[in-house]
Queue: 2 jobs
Job 1
Amino acid sequence: MKFKSPPVNSLSLDFITEFCIGLEKLENNRECRGVIFTSAVPNIFSSGLDITEMCGKSMEHYAEFWRAVQEMWLRLYGSNMVTVAAVNGSSPAGGCLIALTCDYRIMVENPKFVIGLNEAQLGIVAPFWFKDTFVNTVGHRVAERSLQLGSLHSASEAHRLGLVDELVPEVKLQEKAAAVMAQWLALPDHARQLTKSMMRKAVLDRLVAHREEDVQNFVNFISKESIQKSLRMYMEMLKKKKR
Ligand SMILES: CCCCCCCC/C=C\CC(=O)SCCNC(=O)CCNC(=O)[C@H](O)C(C)(C)COP(=O)(O)OP(=O)(O)OC[C@H]1O[C@@H](n2cnc3c(N)ncnc32)[C@H](O)[C@@H]1OP(=O)(O)O
């Protein structure tokens, strides 16, 4: 699945809806046993949640958007397929979450590319299921420090921390992703799928059990004037950076 929503593959409601539909089609296709996620936008894997979906909109819109974000994560983290992220660009916040939610992460070894859950830098808080996914990948200590500081890690640092599994030169990315996929698909599906489910079930169940509460927390948090102000300032900063 190649993300192609220029300029930065931000995760808008439309993007997320298409992502979920695409994933469901693949999940229902018996001939498809694995998916590689990558980007068709140069230098960007995904810039994370589309901030304009969380700024200046109605409470109803925030609730609809957040349910879609939850749905995307539930489908991807709970997927029966082998999922490989071929990270060929920067991947902050929600973009990093997509990578973390996959079974394996390969990143291009470009010192300019960054990845991480930088929510704290925007004055927002990564929800518990982002945190759980992060902890399950890198362990509690690394996740705690990285989340509190809202760190964006270079590709080499992300590799050292275990946030990504492998680094490759850009030209080798697709070949490496295909080789990893072949290695994972060599196992019997039922054994791999049951093992994956056993490892991820508690974290998935936790969101399913608290889904509406999580939507309400998000809506209350994001609609606070202080949070709206932080997000507006962040968007202005992104725009000014260009000039
Ligand atoms: C109690 C429960 C509480 C729950 C709280 C909420 C939890 C929310 C969880 C997740 C949050 C997120 O995912 S927020 C998104 C975080 N993303 C970022 O911080 C990345 C921001 N973007 C960048 O750093 C850079 O754009 C880039 C490194 C990704 C690319 O840099 P580049 O120089 O190539 O491009 P530009 O910066 O010039 O950007 C081009 C264009 O795109 C706009 N843009 C960028 N990112 C976003 C985004 N995430 N959403 C919307 N729009 C974005 C940027 O403003 C530029 O627009 P213009 O061309 O109009 O200027």
Note: The longest helix spans residues 189-209.
Job 2
Amino acid sequence: MEPKNNDKQIAGEEAVKFIKDGMTIGLGSGSTVNWMLKKLGERVKEGLNIKGIPSSLKTERLANELGIPLTDFSEVAQLDLAIDGADEVDSRLNLLKGGGGSLVREKIVDMAAKELIIIVDRSKVVPQLGAFPLPVEVLPFGWELTARNIAKLGCEPIIRKKEDQVFVSDNGNYILDCKFSAIKQPEILHEDLKRIVGVVETGLFIGMGVKVIVAKNGEIELLK
Ligand SMILES: O=C[C@H](O)[C@H](O)[C@H](O)COP(=O)(O)O
């Protein structure tokens, strides 16, 4: 059996086949996207003419190292394509994202794209979202109160930490990882969370009409 990392690489590299000359591309975040960026960097060196908008500072750094030209929303109103990873994909192709803490910028970038391709290994495909704790980005001010209000929706929010320090997102905010027993109605949960003052965005990406490239044991499957 191929190691899982290889499947991330296979899914990432497959997505680059959808990138055409002249496109403006949303560049997602995470380890699977990093494989896509490496392949895209090679294509750019060979002469492919594209511009990307990164969805995180990490992606921006890697894209710069790889020589991928970048732009931003002061110059671009709509992206031709966005390519992003996910932590879970359900049977209706709803997504749970934000394991790396990049959910807000990812949602802005992904929603600005005419087409969104999600790249995952098979372990991310689940019948129902929610085994992975749902990342919710919140304002630092009063985050404890925001967390108590979120808890009323049926979860125990945990403040995300990195090396014993509170994790701070690219936007200067905190992330609450919210473990619900199951997320049966993601649309409703997303709306309920967004009504809580202090919540910036949730990691639920619902009904975005995505194509999903799934790699399993070296084989590719396309879900849409
Ligand atoms: O905030 C991070 C993003 O939503 C990632 O796209 C997601 O966590 C998947 O990451 P990976 O490809 O590393 O599993």
Note: The pocket of ribose-5-phosphate is lined by residues 28-32, 84-87, 97-103, 106 (CB under 6 Å).
